[in-house]
Amino acid sequence: MSAIEIALFVLGAVFFAASFVIPEMRANEKDAAISKDEMKKMLNEELKNAQKQMKDTVSETVSYAVEKSDRSLERVSNEKIMALSEYSETVLEEIGKNHKEALFLYDMLNDKEEDLKNTIRKVEQIRQDVNELQSSGTEAGTVVEELSFQTEIQPAADNLDDNLAEGSNDTDVPAADNRKRNRNEQILSLHKQGESNVSIAKELGLGVGEVKLVIDLFEGANG
């Protein structure tokens, strides 16, 4: 074989081999292109799924957090409301207690005021009674003194009257009667004006017993 034949034979073999290799390479390139598209598609789908899962997870987490926060706020609100209610009840109880104590003190003050008024009235009545007793005691003492004085001087007065009766004339008797009558009228007049027996006796210079006797006789005669 010549060199040309050998070269043609080799070239033919190369072309023959190339006829098998080139289509295979094109098929591999096509398969590679198809694989890249599928991978992109798969990646996009996985990415979408991941995004969806992430959104779902975030949504669930947010919902859980919101629900938990609501429960916490509700619990805190209930606790605050219960505490405020208990405090309000305590305040109302204290107010009611203070109101009852104020009413009790007010009633007690009213009772004490009434007792004080009664005591003042009793003291005033006792003072008046004491004044009346003192006045009565003064008059009684004056009467006793007057009666004692009259008892002591009565014998001498009787003797003096007897002596005067023997030495006097009849013209002196009417004058004495007139003086006695005028004196009795003065006693009765002062008595009607509201003067006491002691005042009348002092004003007329008479004894209290004499004044009392004239008044008693006058009232007994009119009664």
Structure write-up:
By secondary structure, the chain is an all-alpha fold. The chain has a domain at 121-222. The protein contains four helices and no strands. The chain has helices at residues 3-167, 172-192, 197-204, 208-222. The radius of gyration is 73 Å and the shape is rod-shaped. The N and C termini lie far apart (206 Å). The model is unreliable at 149-157 and 167-173 (pLDDT under 50).
Q: How would the global form be characterised?
A: rod-shaped
Strand content: under 5%
Helix coverage percent: over 70%
How many whole angstroms does the radius of gyration measure?
A: 73 Å
Low-confidence stretches: 149-157, 167-173
| Biggest sheet features | none
Give the H and E element order.
HHHH
Distance between the termini: 206 Å
Structural class: mainly alpha
Quote the average pLDDT. 71
**What is the count of helical runs?**
4
What's the number of extended β-strand segments? 0
Write the layout of secondary structure elements.
Layout (H helix, E strand, L loop, with lengths): L2 H165 L4 H21 L4 H8 L3 H15 L1
Helix pairs in contact: 2-3, 2-4, 3-4
Report a brief summary of the structure.
The protein is an all-alpha fold and 223 residues long. It has four helices and no strands.
